[in-house]
Amino acid sequence: MEPPAELTRHSSPYYSLNRRLFGKELRRVIEFASLAVNGPEAMGKLLDLRDRLNLLDINMEE
Prior knowledge:
This protein has one domain. It has 3 helices and no strands. The protein has helices spanning 15-35, 39-45, 47-52. The longest helix has 21 residues, at 15-35.
């Protein structure tokens, strides 16, 4: 499941809000993924959404 494309466009009034909320949750996902056997695979599934929200700087090393 992913947010509608219009919510991840830079021109959307909701872009900053979505980016901030997803960034907070992404940090939690990274914490769980770092402990999981399939952590890298789980992070790979989020790559497109992270790219659309410009959150590629948040990674498993944090």
